[in-house]
Amino acid sequence: MDLPLLGKTAVVTGSSRGIGASIAQKLAADGANVIINYHADDAPACVVANTINAREGGRAIVVKADVATIEGGKLLLEKCTEKLGVPDILVLNAGVMGHKPLAEVDEEYYDLHFNTNVKGPLFLVKAAAGVMKSGSRIIFVSTTLTKATTILPMGLIFAATKGAIEQTVRVLAKDLGERGMTVNAIAPGAVDTPLFREGKPAHLVNWIAQLHPQKRIPVPDEISPIVVFLAKDEAGWINGQTIMVNGVSTLCTCEHGRRLHNLDRDSQYKQKTRSRDDESELFVLFSFRSSVHQDFLLTTLSLSLSTVDRSIYSSSSKEYIILKQYK
To answer: Where are the domains of the chain?
Structure first.
């Protein structure tokens, strides 16, 4: 049995479920001994560990630690060193993802995201880097949203934290690269996990699936193999990279700032956009080619009637147009 990670020790934060659990199982299947980390509920973490320990490959132990805190990160590292030895592979998977626009963001919400997604991982890497050896691998988890031109207002804080992570990867790769370590990140798109489906109606899940050429949402086992590859010796020349793992997902075309009167090729657009009494102008917020997208933007993402002033259909371009009026 080929075990390319035999003798390696891996820590995967937030690995009791979802992508983290899949990463831990894939690493163990290739021979690594793995720390299964959780914060609140030990039952899922124990299931993951028992699954690993029932198979050939590396073994797993469970460690409770709140890696959003510096103290929790230190505890996790101490337990790893005590039980399995100094880590060779550190995967920073734990994170939170809220959905609030600027008007609803408060300090508590901000701190939760930056402590969990940025501060905790950074200081855990700082502590681990002091003991990790040459050839070690550090792998962060970002998101495709950092590259999505159509990101919506409620993604503000989450995207900001992941943007910070991607810049951290670039800089740490040069810092720790001098010691023979690599620092990379993966950036998944939507992944079919209970957390992803939580609170989402079926039509929204179906809409997101349609963004992929294969018309489906991937499962965690389709994301985790790239992490395992980055952990191997063969990936030693890949450093400072954020690797997109999103199935070539696409989003509707964003057309911010396009004036409505530039679209007068269509008879439905031949209307007065300025008047003597109202010095306002209609702008296109989004254009797309499926009515499903319209339902998604108007209902699920809370682009309320106070934000969206008009929705019309262009027969010539076969586009649905969402409009906003600015004064």
So the answer is: 9-245, 253-326
Helix 156-177 to helix 107-114 angle (10° resolution) is: 30
Continuous segment of H or E residues that includes residue 207: helix 202-209
- d(Cα 261, Cα 19) in Å, to the nearest integer? 47
> What does pTM read for this prediction?
0.78
Beta strands in 30-143, from DSSP E residues, in sequence order: 33-38, 60-64, 89-92, 137-141
Type of residue numbered 263:
L
Top-level CATH class of 9-245? alpha beta
Q: Which tens digit of pLDDT belongs to each residue from 283-316?
A: 444 444 444 444 445 444 434 334 444 555 555 5
The residue among 94, 87, 35, 97 whose CA lies nearest residue 66 is 94
Token duo for residue 294: 């319209």
Rounded-to-integer distance, Cα 273 and Cα 259, Å = 9
